[in-house]
Structures are given as structure tokens and as C-alpha cells.
Write a structure and sequence with these properties.
With 299 residues, this protein is α+β, with helices and mostly antiparallel strands. The protein has two domains: 53 residues; 208 residues, Jelly Rolls, CATH 2.60.120.620. It has nine helices and 17 strands. A nine-stranded antiparallel β-sheet has the order 1-2-3-14-10-17-8-7-4. It has a four-stranded antiparallel β-sheet with strand order 9-15-12-13, with no helix packed on it. Helix 1 crosses helix 3 and helix 2 runs antiparallel to helix 3. The chain is elongated and about 65 Å long. The relative contact order is 0.18.
């Protein structure tokens, strides 16, 4: 979610630290130079809360080139690696519980809408399995990679382990069969509840090279795709939105949105910018799977 700190700003922050400027002085100077409040706070935190070697790493030309390449707003001829080939050529994919139906496709951003990914009974069972285990959802801190409460994400969630119950093991295997990606590349399902007014403001699911905190998560592999499964019908609101693609998908029981955003060169597609629109009536339950480019072992 964080924007890269460019080399010039990193150099300026390092120089101010070397000259023994205080935190408040650096923040005030950034505001004076017309930085937005949030950006000034983030840059100040990088300058004073990160180890000096992390700040030094932002001065590396190779790092800056890779960060700029990853966050380009448009990559000509972009093709994600985690394409669902069968869903591109078939309108119905037979699996263990019946046929998954393809209901929509978008080439850019790469999004596929699917129906009957879970049965209504499986959706109900997953909600009840998770209902009393959820707590406030967090985001990744752009400064140190820790979990952070953020007003842009106001849902509740529980993180499940791969194969932790017969139901979860069955769903893990079904997702692997659907996507063609081994189940050990998944981070594990997260079940989330959104009440009225809850949302997830538009963001990226991939980890940004230019974010010191997010970059720490790359040692476990980059995220390449996301599967969002809708566990109930929502009275109003709660769509998955893709602002750059002028695309939205309304939640319906057992349906899902699949989107992929990283190519073989490790470049990530800014067109995948997406969010969860506020719930206007009722509640929304979803299960999300983040998929990595290699087998994932939780830290």
C-alpha cells in the first residue's frame, strides 16, 4: 500500500539525521515543502524508526530501479503468471463439488468472476467455524512490517492454517485444482466479516519494493494472485471494486473474484488496485486466499 521513498528524499532524510535534526524539525520541514500529512509522517518514521542500514538501502540505484519498475502505472504487454487457463477457455470447470461457472472476465486488470466456488452449505459452515474467532483486521506497517491497525481496513477476521480442519483441507485442495497452483503456495484462508459501514479502502495486495516494512515480507515470496470468496448475499454495498478498471463485483453466496497481478519478471500491475466498498445494509462475510510465487511458510 505504501509508495516508494525516492532516492532524493532518502538522501535528504539521511542528511537531516546526520545533522542531528530532531523528529519534529524534519516533519515540519516536510510539511513546509508541501508533503501531505500522511506522507510526511511516513517519511519521518522511516528516518527515525528504521535502522540506519534500511535508510541506506533506499539510496541503492538497483533497489530504486526495481521499486520504480514494480510500481509503474502501466506495463506494456503485461501478462500475470497466475492465470487460470481453464477459466479463460471454458465457461464451466468441473470439480469435486460440481461445476464452477465463469461469470465474467477482465483482461486488464486480470480478473475472473466465478460462481459455485463453494456451495451454500460450505459457506454457512465456514462462517460458523469462524464466527467466534474473529478480531480486528490489521495491515502491514510500511515502516517495520509489523501488524498495524488502519482506518482504511475496518473488517474483522480470523487467519486459518492450511488444512487445519477437514473443511479447510477440502477447500485448499479445490482452490489448487481451480487455479493450478499448489496449495502450499497459499498463505491460508482468512475469513472476514464486514458490518454496516465497514470497508477496505483501495490498495494493492502485492508487497511494494519501496516500502521497507513490506519488503521484509518478500523473503517469503511475492504475492501473485488473490481469491476472494463471498460467503453470503449482502443486502446492499460490499462490492469488490477495481477503480482503474471501472469494474465492480457484487457479493453473492459461493461466488468469487480471482485476480492476478505479478508477472514472470516480478513486475506488479498497478491496474490491480482494488478495494472492498462499504457495506450499506446487512453484513458481508468473505474468505480470502493470498497466493505466493513459491511455497509459503508462515513466519
Amino acid at each position: 500500500m505504501a509508495n516508494p521513498i525516492n532516492k532524493e528524499l532518502a538522501q535528504w532524510l539521511r542528511d537531516r539525521r546526520a545533522e542531528n535534526f530532531t523528529r519534529d524539525e524534519v516533519h515540519a520541514l516536510l510539511i513546509e515543502h508541501h508533503y501531505a500529512q500522511e506522507d510526511a509522517e511516513r517519511a519521518t518514521a522511516i528516518a527515525f524508526d528504521c535502522p540506519p542500514e534500511d535508510l541506506e538501502s533506499l539510496l541503492d540505484d538497483d533497489f530504486q530501479a526495481e521499486a520504480a519498475n514494480q510500481t509503474a502505472t502501466w506495463i506494456e504487454g503485461f501478462e500475470p503468471t497466475a492465470r487460470i487457463k481453464r477459466a479463460e477457455t471454458q465457461n464451466s470447470i468441473p470439480l469435486d463439488h460440481g461445476a464452477i461457472k465463469v461469470v465474467c472476465r477482465s483482461e486488464r486488470p486480470y480478473v475472473i468472476g466465478l460462481a459455485n466456488v463453494l456451495t451454500a452449505e460450505e459457506c454457512h459452515e465456514l462462517i460458523e467455524y469462524s464466527r467466534y474467532r474473529i478480531s480486528r483486521a490489521m495491515v502491514v506497517s510500511p515502516i517495520d512490517g509489523s501488524d498495524l491497525v488502519d482506518d482504511r481496513r475496518t473488517s474483522e477476521l480470523v487467519m486459518l492454517s492450511r488444512g487445519e480442519s477437514p473443511l479447510i483441507a477440502k477447500l485448499d485442495e479445490r482452490i489448487a485444482q481451480l487455479t493450478g497452483i499448489p496449495s502450499d503456495h497459499g498463505e491460508g484462508l482468512q475469513v472476514m466479516r464486514y458490518g454496516v459501514g465497514a470497508e477496505y479502502a483501495p490498495h494493492y495486495d502485492y508487497f511494494a519494493m519501496g516500502s521497507l516494512g513490506e519488503r521484509r515480507h518478500l523473503k517469503h515470496g511475492q504475492r501473485v494472485a488473490t481469491l476472494v470468496i463471498y460467503l453470503n448475499d449482502v443486502e446492499a454495498g460490499g462490492e469488490t471494486i477495481f477503480p482503474y478498471g471501472d469494474l465492480s463485483i457484487a457479493p453473492q453466496t459461493g461466488h468469487a473474484s480471482y485476480f492476478a497481478y505479478t508477472d514472470e519478471a516480478g513486475r506488479c500491475d498497478a491496474m490491480s488496485f482494488h478495494g472492498g466498498a462499504p457495506v450499506k445494509a446487512g453484513e458481508k462475510w468473505i474468505a480470502t486466499m493470498w497466493i505466493r510465487d513459491r511455497p509459503y511458510v508462515a513466519a
